[in-house]
Fold:
Amino acid sequence: MLPTEPLEISPEIRARIGSDLPPDSLELGREPRTEHRFYGPYYEQRSGRYRFRLAFPVWAERVQPSRTDANVPDRASLFGGLYYNRRSAERADDVLFPIFWDLKNRITDDHTTIVGPFVHREAPDENDNWLAPLFFTGRRKGGGYTIVPPLLTYLNNDAEGGFNLVGPLFCSWKGGPSCDARTAEDIDFGVAPFYFYGQNVESKYEVIPPLLHYYRYSERDLSWVNVWGPYYRRHTPTRDALHVFPFYYSLWGPRERHTTLFPFFHYGHDEESSLLVNPLFLLRRGAEGDSTFVTWGYARHRGRTSLDMITPLFWRYRDPDVGLDQTMLFPFFYSRTSPRESSFAVFPFYGRFERFGISDTTWVTPLVRHSSSLRGWSTSIYPLVHFGRNAADTHTVIAPFFWDFASPDSRTTIALPLFFRFADRDSVSQLVGNVYYHESKVYGGRDWEIHVFPLFSYGETPDGHWWNVLYGLAGYTRRGAMTQVRTLYIPITLSGGD
Structure:
């Protein structure tokens, strides 16, 4: 069942929602009937318990019931545009523009006094004292604030923390009554831009920019970093580091050590491997028994794979796991063998590259190449002769005289300078010397024609035929019931014309 008043709001909900309408803007005590009186500069308005009177420009007064106690009148008066006075159950205000304000809220017991630049405010558990724009201070329950702009000073604190700024000095904290590293849970302070320090329950840090100093400590894993200029020191549960940039670097941990003195040497080792590097050579031993040696002009690696390099020109690589053996003497010789392939080349005379069962390519000098694969084969004698097949497609080229390209759907053949033929599933065009032939599929049959340039041409269509001598000097056309002759290039219709 619907309520009697669907839009009615209970007092509890109304108090929670509140309103953004200023309560002092309401006119209280009015009735439907309003009286107006004018006597020259005097004006009066009455409506029930609401009254407004004006004696321009020396006096104005508004009287209505108080908002919280209707038995107490709410009177507001303005005298000469300079003195304002208000008395009600909620307010007691006196203002002498522009030098004096005395404002009192009788409900909240909030009392504010302003005399020129001086401001004093009192409220339960609160007070403020200002001397604008030089000094501002105030007290709140559990804290307060002080602002002194000429001294670049800002102090603010409450029960949860605070922030202080005095010139370049600053302090921000949480979880304590004051800026004290012994009591605050989270604190940052310093002298900008020279010194910065901070700490919380998990970490702490320190920064001194002029000395290039940075320090950080983590309570979580007991790790820390300490930097002083080129000096760098770091500690973690698993590894330590000591560096002096840019020449000395050192890392160590359980059963491992790595040291670099740049550019003279680097040495590092752990339980299973080691590495030594200097300007003359590199020597490395791996965890699986592999070893690597590199020096100027020679390199050697032994492990699951092996590599030999003599100067940048000779390379020998082997991988027994996959049966791979590769040798190169640049730029003359190349060989690569494995269970999948065999490649051999003697530059620039001969080369054969075979993928077993997939492809095989042979070069004889850079000019002759023969290749075969699962789809076909091709042979080339560069740059003039090319033969080959790719699945159902073939090509033959003997440049610059003969070209032939064929596929299941089309074929193009050119034999310069006398023969041209272009064929696909729908048409054929062919030129032999001065004889041209064209044939195509059309609705109802074939359409073909032949020309012996420039003397004679003849053609047939599904519904007729035609011929010409010298392109119309004499000619004849029959198309269905239509018959036409040409004499001296003039067409004459004999029958069937519209």
Remarks:
- The CA atoms of residues 456 and 469 lie 5 Å apart.
- The radius of gyration is 53 Å.
- The mean pLDDT is 93.
- Residues 28-121 form one domain.
